[in-house]
Amino acid sequence: MARRAGGGPGLRLLLWLWGLWGLWGLCALGPGPAAACSPRCRHGGLCLADGSCLCSKGYEGERCQHATCYPKCKNGGECLRPGKCRCPPGYGGRYCHKVSCEGGCQNGGECVSVNGVVKCLCASGWTGSRCQEAICPQGCRNNGACVAPGICSCPAGWVGRACHLAVCKLPCQHGGKCIAPNVCRCRLPYSGPQCTKKRKE
């Protein structure tokens, strides 16, 4: 009589026991121990089996606690989050690479850094921390104000490049000189507001 393929009952029993042993082995082993990171990984970092962190893009450090900026923040800037720098006073721009003067520089002034000190470099004729003050080399007299390089704004009764010339609405006569608004200094023998009165000998 011919044998059926597949072996006898002894072989089938052996295969069944082998499968049972393999199944028991898998159950006995179970899943590996869960990875534990303490303190935990921050900013979406992945905890690895050895307790270290695999940081997500834009962060670094033992626990992914530090943001990274590329290029790095310059001039002492601090990276707050990926690509975002907090700049110290006097600097600005995405990576703190631009010099920044508080309030800006006026009248054509340029913000520069000289030996680590940020300041405005003023155009000719201007001065002040923000180049806000005009320079009048001739000076502005009689309470005049320098409003532009070399230009004075004079109060009422005064004119001239330096506000040094008084104005008399009624002119001084007989060689008299206007020395203050509407005040004449008369030549002898004349007197009066406009030097019109002649003194009698």
State the gist of this model.
The protein is 10% helix and 27% strand.
Explain how this protein is built.
Keywords: Disulfide bond, EGF-like domain, Repeat, Signal. Pfam families: EGF, EGF_2, hEGF. It is built from 1 helix and 20 strands. With 201 residues, the chain is mostly beta strands. The protein has 4 domains: 36-68, Laminin (Ribbon), CATH 2.10.25; 78-127, Ribbon (Laminin); 136-165, Laminin (Ribbon); 168-198, Laminin (Ribbon). The chain has one helix at residues 9-29, and strands spanning 46-47, 53-54, 59-60, 66-67, 78-81, 84-86, 91-92, 98-99, 110-114, 117-121, 126-127, 133-134, 145-148, 151-153, 158-159, 165-166, 177-180, 183-185, 190-191, 197-198. It has a two-stranded antiparallel sheet.
Secondary structure: elements and pairs:
Layout: H1 9-29, E1 46-47, E2 53-54, E3 59-60, E4 66-67, E5 78-81, E6 84-86, E7 91-92, E8 98-99, E9 110-114, E10 117-121, E11 126-127, E12 133-134, E13 145-148, E14 151-153, E15 158-159, E16 165-166, E17 177-180, E18 183-185, E19 190-191, E20 197-198
Antiparallel strand pairs: 1-2, 3-4, 5-6, 7-8, 9-10, 11-12, 13-14, 15-16, 17-18, 19-20
Domain EGF-like: 33-65, 97-132, 164-196
Protein name: VWDE protein
Organism: Prunella himalayana
> SSE string, helix = H, strand = E?
HEEEEEEEEEEEEEEEEEEEE
Total of helices: 1
Question: In what range is the share of β-strand residues?
Answer: 25-35%
Structural class: mainly beta
CATH homologous superfamily designation of the largest domain = Laminin
- The CATH class of the largest domain is Mainly Beta
User: Rg, please?
Assistant: 46 Å
Mean pLDDT: 84
